[in-house]
Amino acid sequence: MDDSFQRSLYSELDDLDYQIVCFLEENARTPFTQIAKELGVTEKTVRMRVQQMQEEGVLSLIGVVNPVKAGIRVETIIQLAVSGNYLDAVINTLQETPEVRLVILTSGEYQLLIQVFTRDNQEFSEFFMNKLNKIEGIIKSNVIMELKVLKSKFKFIR
């Protein structure tokens, strides 16, 4: 994907903001003075632009944990069909469940898609049998075990 196409995906960012984000995405600990020098602007300009993007919710500077290095060996995607009257209650329960990393409202036969992280298959089995299967309102599930991650893109720019 060429840079002009990639840049067009982020049309809400002006060129300076885009360049700043590129630096921070590569290494969020890059000093603002270094970014400013590379871009030919003042450190204050970089600092203010980053602060504005954070306040607007465009940019978050966070640490990302590698699940495998943290002991998570089983990542599972589960599609859930939920009885219409229970959708809000099921969502609330899933949001409070520690093993559930992601909850997405979807269209089609399954109303929800969740991602579950567990240390091993035994822990997943216990989660599935003792937690997920006991949530009232779930009428059908489709469990998709991740066998191998072929691409995991944390970088959104470039």
From TrEMBL:
Top-level taxonomic group: Bacteria
Entry GO MF terms: sequence-specific DNA binding
Pfam families recorded: AsnC_trans_reg (PF01037), HTH_AsnC-type (PF13404)
Record key words, sorted: DNA-binding, Transcription, Transcription regulation
Organism for this UniProt entry: Brevibacillus fulvus
Start and end residues of each HTH asnC-type domain: 13-73
Protein name (record): Lrp/AsnC family transcriptional regulator for asnA, asnC and gidA
